[in-house]
Amino acid sequence: MTSTPHRSGFACLIGRPNAGKSTLTNALVGQKVAITSDRPQTTRHTVRGIVSRPDSQLVLIDTPGLHRPRTLLGERLNTLVTDTLGEVDVILFCLPANQKVGPGDRFIASQLAEIVSGRRGPKVIAVATKSDLVTKEQMAQHLIDVDQLGDWAHIIPVSAQSRYQVDELIDLVVSELPEGPQLYPDGELTDEPESVMVAELVREAALEGVRDELPHSLAVVVEEMSLRPGRDEDHRLIDVRVNLFVERPSQKSIIIGRGGARLKAVGTAARREIEALLGDKVFLDLHVKVAKDWQRDPKQLGRLGF
Ligand SMILES: Nc1nc2c(ncn2[C@@H]2O[C@H](COP(=O)(O)OP(=O)(O)OP(=O)(O)O)[C@@H](O)[C@H]2O)c(=O)[nH]1
Ligand SMILES: [Mg+2]
Questions:
Q1: What is the pLDDT of residues 16-27, one digit of tens each?
Q2: Ligand 1 center to residue 301 CA distance, Å?
Q3: Any idea which architecture 194-303 has in CATH?
Q4: Kind of pairing, strands 123-129 and 90-96?
Q5: Among 141, 54, 156, which Cα is nearest to 98's?
Q6: 22 in ligand 1 pocket by Cβ < 6 Å?
Q7: Which of 145, 142, 122 shows the shortest CA–CA distance to 131?
Q8: Class of the CATH-defined domain 7-175
Q9: What is the pLDDT of residues 111-152, one digit of tens each?
């Protein structure tokens, strides 16, 4: 009896901000491991999602959107992405079908050309995301434009929202992975620490409905997570204390809202998600603080984990 060899390896999702990388990562994993929003630059660190099958294990790395940086934070995020690219087997270059291929995509394509020029460089798969938002004709034109942008191992249209070709994309990536052992135990979906996931869920809830530059100015840090003492095993309660940092006092009042109404709504939405993640009741204590111009300040960036 011959058995097919086990394959394993890493694939990194890249693309301009808002291209649908994190939504696709979640669809590929089958569960939420990365937060998403309609604001650009939602993802700020690399997030690993794991797809395990009997004959393969694929580790996905979702990255911050690549763009021309305007702040020190932007620069650090770009460096994070380009450092990751050299270390993976496959690159998934995401190009949203509902938007024309533009200068942002050409900027990324030119960076990719350098990285994969080495003979042993990673394979690049161009992924036309958000296929549910366009007609067949629009998709056909998009695929032609994407094809002309560079030299891709494959081009595939997908929709994370309607799950169109999500499994086909996994097959395609796995076919490009080298033979190798399982890297993570079965059932593990991410290697994100819980405190990071909790901070991200608070940031996702806080991003909902805020406009302009505020999303960029928001950073979230979990200060404390602890089991409330003196409660029995069936009524566990986890105290979670979280700081939300903004750059200016005016932003602080937007986040808090009239009479604290907005912060309360953010807390309620985030608490539901955190309880689902941790499987315990949670007391969520949110504090909003001003860290002046943290996006441009190396010291503050360090303190906030960038
Ligand atoms: N209709 C539709 N919307 C999608 C799809 N994928 C993503 N979106 C939406 O596009 C927006 C951006 O999605 P994200 O997954 O956060 O994009 P991203 O590329 O991770 O963005 P950054 O982390 O900021 O670089 C969100 O509002 C998503 O709901 C899709 O397949 N179909
Ligand atoms: Mg993202």
A1: 999 999 999 999
A2: 26
A3: 2-Layer Sandwich (3.30)
A4: parallel
A5: 141
A6: yes
A7: 142
A8: alpha beta
A9: 888 877 765 779 999 999 999 999 999 999 999 999 999 999
